[in-house]
Design goal:
Largest sheet of chain A: none
Oligomer: homodimer
Structural class of chain A: mainly alpha
Radius of gyration of chain A: 18 Å
Largest interface: A-B, 42 and 42 residues
Strand content of chain A: under 5%
Number of helices of chain A: 10
Amino acid sequence: MLRSREDAIVASVNRLLAEKGFEAMTMDEVAADVGIAKASLYKHFASKEQLAAEAMIRVLDRALEVTETLQREERLGDLDRLKAVTRWALETQLAGEMPSLPAQDSALRSTLMSHNGYLDRLMRLSDRLGLWITGAQESGALNARLPAEVVLYTLFARACDPVLSLLKIGGNYSDAQIVDTLISTCFDGLTG
Amino acid sequence: MLRSREDAIVASVNRLLAEKGFEAMTMDEVAADVGIAKASLYKHFASKEQLAAEAMIRVLDRALEVTETLQREERLGDLDRLKAVTRWALETQLAGEMPSLPAQDSALRSTLMSHNGYLDRLMRLSDRLGLWITGAQESGALNARLPAEVVLYTLFARACDPVLSLLKIGGNYSDAQIVDTLISTCFDGLTG
DNA sequence: GTCTATAAGAGGATAGAC
DNA sequence: GTCTATCCTCTTATAGAC
């Protein structure tokens, strides 16, 4: 019961973070969205930063599940796997479930960087993606002149790319078209 | 004299916006950075949002100058021009002079969307880039299956791409390497 | 136009009863 | 663990003297 209440809180936080970002999200909104008093939030989580960290952990866990499933698909090449996990991230963003954190907020960053649960998951995910990246580079499917670090950062950034929300707001394309287009521009570039 | 004072204010705002973003920048910091009292700021500019709009206008004016210079270079193709203006944007970001605004803040967005000076410049820039985009697509230099809107949004987004600051923080690459790499991933993709 | 001082309000976090 | 009520700090913006 406590667990499901906390799940509900984190689910609300996740959605609000995706919708408005960390700074614009207020603890009053979270409490109202969950349907409890603000003070009760603090019985479950120590701070707004901790709440954001829990939401990120939830997303990282889902990403790790996705990568594990893709790893088991033996008919897939490493480039296919990278595209598939990118597709999952774009679809998650499209569904309004990809929390967006500020790139440089100091208070939040220091909380995240000292949060072992978060760091552990982030490193496990980075390691797995790193293996796919070097694998795809060795097979020639990915540009081998790009440092693996650049590829990794690019994929993480594309998972939160504001281009998706601009296209969504424009309303001229279906969700599937948006995802396909962004996969194409990310991997094949604008020159195609 | 009034003009140069206001120039100094906007220059500080521009730098602070690039460094910390709109929400993290405070009017106290701006006043301290310029070296005047906070109340004096409000004799020049009505609000924090107006200040951000002025900083954006300054950047858009510089972008328009860059595009005009590139338009006059007759030996360049449209794709070369698009790459050159993207390069300028990345170098501006590297120099800590590209203001970063939140993608979805409502108060700021409504100020910007009702600011004629801002809107006018944004549309003039978009129009010019739009001509280059369709030109490059017609000559086959740019993927003609991509809607011009997608290309335009992608270029705007890459001008503020967080990947640049991640690579800069990492410290493993020179500024020139970072810019070349991001131009490459943007136009040629990760597959190369 | 610049300053000091302060209003006004938002938002994170807590006290203390139940 | 939940609530109401409140604290406290930060930040935007303004008042009013010079």
